[in-house]
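Section 5.1 Outputs to date
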Amino acid sequence: MSEVIVVNGKQYYAETGLLVENQPITTEVEAPSVHIHQGVQKSQTLNRRFVKQPARQTEDQVEAIRQFKRKHNYEEARKRAAQMNAEAARKRATTTAQVSHFNKGVGSSKRVIAPIAQRVETPITPAQIHPLQAKINTESQIYAEKHLPSAKEIKESAISQAIASVNTSPKNRKKARGFKKLAFWKSKNFIGLTASLTVIVACLGYLSYLSLPDVSTRVAAMQAGIDADLPAYVPSNYQLNGLAKFDGKAVNISYKSGKNKYTIKQSRSSWDSVALLNNYVEKNWSDQYTATQEKGIMVYTSGRGEAAWVNNGIVYIIDGQTGLDDEQIRKIANSF
């Protein structure tokens, strides 16, 4: 039966293209998806269509396997080694000559064994003494028999005799005693002791010199009945000019630098800054002064480098041909 196709609702034979008469028009029905998709397939790993059947081993392969087993069979190797050792020992036993106790010189294989040659020891000739050494030995023996003193013995004997003769002389005894008396003053111990004492005295003197200004200030403060002190700040190029002293009114401490010099006077007073201004500043400097307050202290300075201020009941006055500026005066006032 030929295949039929449908065109515009009419059936035709696919091979001839003729119209099929009196045939109902059929419509295609879609098949369900169950019939389209395949089900679960079995594993085809061992299917001979995909895996070839193993071929039989050839003789070469069998021999290679046998050789491999033989190489790795240690038990068989040990047996073969033992057989080879036994065979080698058997060969040595049949070929090696053996010494017979009753038939000397003939081995087990009827071979003649040559006797071992005995070693002949040659006598050792004694060492001979050299002629020069023999002569030295003879002369030393003769010298020892005569009992002649050596050079060292002669020298020691002469030294001992000279010492004995010096000690026995009365003049030498007096000189020796005098030398012993002077030996202490010229010894190294005396020189070292003297040097040490000199250094100690110099250090003490230097320390005393450094502490003299402070000591003199304390003494003058006790005389004035105030707590006077040295300033902690001293302008550059100025040095202390003498020791502090009490003139009956104030403690005076003087400093000098070339032609310039100034004196700091410290005295007890009940003045405050206003009283100092009225009783001293205006009286001595008129209106040529400058007032500067520094850390709660009113410092009055003149145009000539002089200054005055009050602190804790003590009046401080700087006068003289000072050559100081306002900054230096401020540092001096803050250093008390």
